[in-house]
Amino acid sequence: MDGSIRVTILRRVASNDPLPAVPERRPDLVTWMFGLDRPTLTDRPQRWGVVPTFRFWNRLDTAKYQLLPVAAGLALALVFLELTMSLAVAVLGALAPVLLGPIAIALGLLPLGLFERWLRREIATRRALPPASDPPT
Question: What's the pTM?
Fold first, then answer.
């Protein structure tokens, strides 16, 4: 079996036959940049509407866009801790980090979750649109 495949490939290369042209429709810039044309981005729903789905962000086409939301979330969490930690330590003592830690983590993940929600909405609206017909040439 391997020999026949090899012979077929060698015949194709030796004959200089051009490969059959496959018409390819290129997506627009936003669709390509965010990978909105890939169906696997939304195969799992986003929990509670704002919790980031890490399967969504662990892809190469979306991972490079998470820096800004993660930085915003980190800044939000640090501002929250700066404003509340001194009062919470005075009132709650050693329980302050235990109570404020999960709140800071939730605030840190909020911008990433909201950005993912916006991207999912964009994917849904672009899939609902009829395909654009190519202009006549």
Answer: 0.61
The parent domain of residue 55 ranges over: 50-129
Residue 112 included in any domain: yes
Are 36 and 122 spatial neighbours (Cβ–Cβ below 8 Å)? Answer: yes
Q: Is residue 22 part of a domain?
A: no
The letter for the amino acid at 58 is N
The pLDDT score that the predictor gives to residue 41 is 66
102-128 per-position pLDDT tens digit = 999 999 999 999 999 998 888 888 877
Q: What gap in Å lies between CA 36 and CA 126, rounded to an integer?
A: 8
Residue 120, C-beta contacts closer than 8 angstroms, at least 6 positions apart:
41, 42, 46
Structural domains in the chain (count): 1
Distance of CA 119 to CAs 32, 42, 133, Å? 13, 10, 24
Task: For the chain, state the CA radius of gyration.
Answer: 25
Q: What mean pLDDT comes out for the span 47-51?
A: 83
